[in-house]
């Protein structure tokens, strides 16, 4: 779609006053500096229907503070999503037009779409005019149902605190996970990809988001109906296939949390160049009841039927094909096995 068609509907300019520091140093840059160059666009991608409309209402309250706090530093560009995957398109267009930053405003679902907007056909999107050397920074203002990615950094679930973080302008590079299925098409995740029971629970939870974080409990109860632990095979770092018996859930973490605060991959670090794999084997429904607190504090990895491993890549397939083993990434339904995940080290710059 042509740029001339996109800018009027996607971008609403804020006030313009002083300039933004656009030094070439991509690590620990400060957004509050000065420069003789003109200010760049900070594009805020907002899902107004998120959290049953709460995101849109809170955004209206937050916008005056953003204009006051960030207006002197950048052009504030609002961009409201109108449906699924719209945030992907908005982000790609913003990067192509040379945006200094794209900030996801909403929950983990909005963040997931924005992250995917940093890529096109499996490759990073670059600015048309500024070239591949220009880096667009990712930002996050939590205003959705879940804020699992923010928990890894210890960030408060507070949008005003997030604006202050963006205003400070400190940035660092983080890894991004890549997931592909039988078609080979690549999708990207910043948090956790997971398979079987947890992915099925996430699929059902997405149907009950009107209940807030309770949706995760409802989703888990729905997923247990008719659930069977299943033998899967994995291939780590292009090695040999290994069989994992009676798999309940297999989680691949770039970050630590999913499902509304479960510390499922507690050793994951989005800046260490690895994915952390956690496999729960032969869990019964009562194990989740008895050990739920361990899933939230991360101590479940000490259980005898929990397997952990640090990998660069992992392939997962069924030993005996059923064709209905759920896969999700960042809480979004991806499809069914087989799947392959790998890590892209230092793929995106983010406000920290």
TrEMBL record:
Which PROSITE patterns does this UniProt record tie to the protein?
DAGK
**Ranges for domain DAGKc:** 36-183
- For the keyword Transcription regulation, the answer is no
Q: Gene Ontology terms, cellular component aspect?
A: membrane; mitochondrion
**Pfam entry (one):** YegS_C
| Any one Gene Ontology BP term | response to cold
Q: What GO terms are given for molecular function?
A: ATP binding; kinase activity
State if Cell wall biogenesis/degradation is listed as a keyword. no
What's the superkingdom here? Eukaryota
Record's InterPro entries? ATP-NAD_kinase_N, Diacylglycerol/lipid_kinase, Diacylglycerol_kinase_cat_dom, Lipid_Phosphate_FormReg, NAD/diacylglycerol_kinase_sf, YegS/DAGK_C
**Per UniProt, which keywords does this protein have?**
ATP-binding, Kinase, Nucleotide-binding, Transferase
Q: Which PANTHER family match?
A: SPHINGOSINE KINASE (PTHR12358), SPHINGOSINE KINASE RELATED PROTEIN (PTHR12358:SF54)
What this protein is called in its record is: DAGKc domain-containing protein
Q: Which species does this protein come from?
A: Asparagus officinalis
């Amino acid at each position: 779609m042509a740029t001339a068609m996109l800018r009027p509907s996607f971008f609403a300019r804020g006030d313009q006053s002083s300039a933004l520091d656009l030094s070439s140093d991509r690590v620990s840059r400060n957004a509050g500096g000065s420069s003789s160059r003109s200010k760049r666009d900070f594009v805020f991608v907002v899902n107004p229907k998120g959290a049953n409309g709460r995101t849109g209402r809170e955004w209206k309250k937050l916008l005056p503070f953003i204009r006051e706090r960030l207006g002197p530093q950048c052009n504030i560009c609002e961009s409201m999503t109108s449906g699924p995957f719209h945030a992907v398109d908005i982000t790609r267009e913003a990067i192509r037009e040379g945006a200094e930053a794209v900030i996801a405003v909403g929950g983990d679902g909005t963040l997931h779409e924005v992250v995917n907007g940093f890529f096109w056909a499996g490759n990073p999107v670059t600015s048309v005019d500024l070239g591949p050397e220009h880096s667009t920074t990712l930002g996050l203002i939590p205003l959705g149902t879940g804020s699992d990615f923010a928990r890894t950094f210890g960030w408060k679930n507070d949008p005003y605190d997030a604006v202050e973080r963006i205003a400070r302008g400190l940035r660092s590079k983080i890894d991004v996970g890549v997931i592909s299925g039988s078609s080979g098409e690549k999708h990207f995740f910043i948090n956790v990809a997971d398979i079987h029971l947890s992915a099925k629970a996430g699929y059902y939870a997405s149907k009950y988001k009107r209940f807030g974080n309770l949706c995760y409990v409802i989703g888990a109860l729905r997923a247990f109906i008719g659930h069977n632990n299943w033998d899967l095979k994995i291939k780590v770092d292009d090695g040999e296939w290994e069989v994992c018996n009676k798999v309940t859930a297999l989680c691949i973490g770039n970050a630590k949390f999913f499902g509304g605060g479960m510390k499922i991959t507690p050793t994951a670090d989005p800046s260490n160049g690895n994915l952390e794999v956690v496999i729960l084997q032969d869990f019964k429904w009562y194990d989740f009841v008895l050990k739920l607190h361990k899933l939230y504090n991360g101590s479940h990895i000490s259980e005898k039927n929990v397997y952990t491993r640090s990998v660069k890549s992992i392939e997962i397939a069924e030993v005996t094909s059923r064709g209905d083993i759920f896969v999700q990434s960042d809480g979004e339904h991806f499809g069914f096995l087989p799947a392959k995940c790998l890590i892209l080290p230092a793929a995106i710059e983010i406000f920290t």
